[in-house]
Backbone:
């Protein structure tokens, strides 16, 4: 069950916990629509990305999160409490797709990593690798726009030295203008491909 109170409590805890260790810079947060169904599409360079992006916008984000995070009852309850829902990354996960569609149609902000997982180096979006087709398909099926998002610097938090006093890691979170969804008529496949190219270019340009 999605809990707005759970999300707010979780966001407050993350802000307080990370404040001594992260120097966060947020640009373009006004591009995230304040209401209505919308997809947030960031690059993905570390496991710290969801909480850092989550505390950078004013509305809750329902993250599509890897199924492994829901393997244990306690962690599964925690992630569901803050609005996240599981997705398998091996094949198309239809239950996850249906959940995302339902939430978008209910006016939620759904966070989806279009790279399909953590990506750095030549296999990453930022170095020109193609996106997975999920965001384009969700946008086309629901008519929801997608907000490109860039995060940089969060991977530095894997270094234990960054958790020492006065060693705050600089992290940038940048949001671009929403992209309209691909058309639901005509050549749908071509529409999705064009959307994926535009989304990838938009994130790289940030």
Residues:
């Amino acid at each position: 069950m999605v809990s707005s109170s759970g999300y707010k409590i979780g966001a407050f805890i993350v802000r307080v916990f990370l404040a001594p260790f992260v120097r966060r810079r947020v640009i373009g947060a006004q591009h995230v629509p304040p209401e209505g169904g919308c997809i947030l599409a960031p690059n993905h360079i570390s496991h710290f990305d969801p909480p850092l992006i989550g505390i950078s916008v004013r509305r809750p984000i329902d993250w599509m999160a890897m199924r492994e995070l829901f393997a244990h009852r306690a962690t599964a309850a925690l992630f569901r409490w803050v609005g996240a829902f599981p997705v398998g990354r091996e094949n198309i996960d239809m239950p996850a797709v249906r959940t995302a569609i339902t939430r978008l149609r209910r006016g939620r902000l759904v966070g989806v990593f279009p790279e399909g997982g953590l990506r750095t180096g030549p296999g990453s979006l930022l170095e020109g690798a193609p996106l997975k087709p999920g965001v384009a398909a969700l946008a086309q099926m629901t008519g929801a726009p997608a907000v490109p998002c860039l995060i940089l610097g969060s991977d530095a938090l894997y270094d234990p030295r960054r958790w020492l006093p006065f060693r705050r890691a600089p992290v940038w979170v940048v949001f671009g203008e929403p992209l309209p969804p691909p058309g639901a008529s005509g050549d749908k496949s071509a529409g999705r491909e064009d959307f994926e190219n535009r989304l990838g270019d938009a994130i790289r340009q940030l």
User: Anything to note?
Assistant: The chain has a mean pLDDT of 89. DSSP finds six helices and seven strands in the chain. The beta strands are 22-27, 38-42, 61-66, 85-87, 109-111, 146-152, 169-175. The first strand starts at residue 22 and ends at 27.
